[in-house]
Design a protein that fits this description.
Number of strands: 2
Strand content: under 5%
Shape: globular
Largest sheet: 2 strands, antiparallel
Order of helices and strands: HHHEEHHHHHHHHHH
Strand order of the largest sheet: 1-2
Distance between the termini: 6 Å
Helix content: over 70%
Radius of gyration: 20 Å
Structural class: mainly alpha
Oligomer: single chain
Length: 277
């Protein structure tokens, strides 16, 4: 097969102000779709609320007879689950639908239309669809945090939450990069559409603090470290359990993965062949 012309591989270069304007238009477009299909939105909203309640009920049941896991108490594990739900809700709203559809875009030859747009291809592919209803998961996470403070009397610093926000953003950047790197593999393995199910299953690892895997197996600990620090590090900051080294590890790991996912995407584009070639 003849490779796609190099000109199509070039990512559009736009200033930050232009990107913000484009994203504002995408928000408006997706909100218009949302209001145009209110019945579908209501169904998604209800299912999101039910799923969120089920998620926290399961967490309560799993920790019912547990007092602590290593140096993390039951209440702290539940707080980790709540903050992870907030982060995943934001991730799902902004990026999830785009990553879910990426393997099919490659497999069905629809990726070409995105590569021809006068905007960075990686950004437009991961930002095109915004699912506002996924934010219900974040809202339920906030409600669950309130539940923990009232019924479990868990104490933490709200100022710590403010300090943790930049590290939550870094964690989301790391999670985005992991998804981007793995889904980009479908440029070569276009029939591996079930890779998305593997990525969804990895969320279970993020609910546990890193110390759990370190005590089980050092090799396993190193393999899952990027996933376990995504939420555990900002939660540890809230609980005053994260040291300066923990914050540095998350920062450095996030930067490395974000650079790597960008480089890997540009490398993948050089290997991509047009569906019409």
């Amino acid at each position: 097969m003849e490779k796609r012309p190099k000109a199509i591989h070039r990512s559009g270069t736009m200033r930050a102000s232009q990107l913000l304007r484009v994203y504002k238009q995408l928000l408006s477009m997706n909100f218009s779709v949302l209001t145009a299909h209110r019945a579908a939105f209501a169904n998604h909203l209800i299912s999101g609320i039910i799923w969120g309640i089920f998620y926290f009920v399961v967490m309560l049941l799993l920790t019912n007879n547990v007092k602590s896991i290593f140096d993390w108490s039951k209440e702290e594990i539940l707080l980790l689950a709540a903050i992870l739900a907030i982060m995943i809700g934001i991730f799902n709203a902004l990026f999830q639908a785009n990553f879910d559809s990426f393997p099919n875009l490659v497999n069905k030859g629809k990726l070409d239309s995105y590569l021809l747009k006068p905007i960075d291809s990686q950004l437009i592919l991961t930002m095109w669809n915004i699912k506002f209803f996924s934010l219900t998961r974040s809202l339920i996470g906030v409600i669950f945090i309130w539940y923990l403070t009232v019924y479990y009397h868990i104490t933490f610093s709200w100022l710590g939450f403010a300090y943790a926000i930049p590290f939550m953003i870094l964690g989301l950047g790391l999670y985005y990069s992991i998804w981007s790197i793995i889904t980009t593999l479908t440029v070569w393995f276009d029939r591996a559409t079930n890779i998305i199910e593997l990525l969804h299953s990895l969320q279970g690892i993020m609910r546990m603090p890193p110390v759990v895997f370190r005590e089980v197996n050092v090799v396993l600990y190193m393999a899952v470290l990027p996933l376990t620090i995504i939420a555990a590090t900002p939660v540890g900051l809230v609980l005053k359990k994260s040291s300066a080294s923990n914050l540095i590890i998350l920062t450095v790991t996030s930067i490395i993965f974000m650079v790597a996912c960008r480089k890997f995407w540009l490398f993948a584009l050089r290997s991509y062949t047009s569906a019409s070639s």
